[in-house]
Amino acid sequence: MSPLSLTVAPSPEAVEIERALTRVAYLNASARRHAVLAAPAGVQLDRAAVALLRRHRDVVVVTGAGGMGTAVARRLGSGRIVFLAEASRGQLGRAVDALRAEGYEVEGMVVDVCDRASVHRLAEAVADAGRLTAVVHTAGLSAATASARTILEVNMVGTAHVLDAFEQLAVRGTAMVCVSSMAGHYASLSEEQESVLATAPAEELLALDFLTAVGDDGIKAYILSKRANHVRVEAAALAWSRRGARVMRTCSSCWRPAARAGPGHPRRSPPRWPASPARTRCTSTAPTCSSTAVRPRGSADTA
Question: Is 26 a catalytic residue?
């Protein structure tokens, strides 16, 4: 059989069946939870009971309502409450409407990850909704879409805010994934600079001298912002582990949403990253560079 035959788009009937099955799975999971919690107490599902049930619901948080974020929501959202956070109100509305039409239970919130208070409002809403199961942080900017300053604010400071806010909600079994980039391995920083980048308070990051030296160089800002993602995740891993939770980062080399493929949307060439002899290979201490969750340098075992 030709490999091309496997790429045929599903029929409308198949799409509707998939949506129906997703909805059935969600209702079935909800019914089981209701039966388990309500039967021993011998109570009707009044408002008080519903409020109690909500505290036992599994919650998934996805930041960024683009192609990657909505794909993650579909993958993880069945039978769970999905909190979708996005800075663009229009983009958020379209994504939430599409997911709800497919049977997912979605709460949309306009969130600016650069604003600590905005991220904490999201975390508070999640805490009220149920048990945090997963956080997938996809919000970010590429080197070609924003100024150097904005790239650092969103990719670096925004990631620090999300890590800090949801660490407080992490419980045993919670997992967080920060979508980063292999571009971070092109950064040439000293161990002292990486240590500061990993541990400095979020509000002090933009004032670091080696970051202010970036100027208007968008590519350099992007590389350093992604390296910041790498080291901050590594530094946060121990605190998350003490809660029985995991925090990881994934290095995505490229992402091309299916909705933008085709004649009307030509594929753009990736930016040319500068050569960096100091980063000719992955320096992560994890088994692979696509997923990293390690203790910060110099930390000791606590077992």
Answer: no
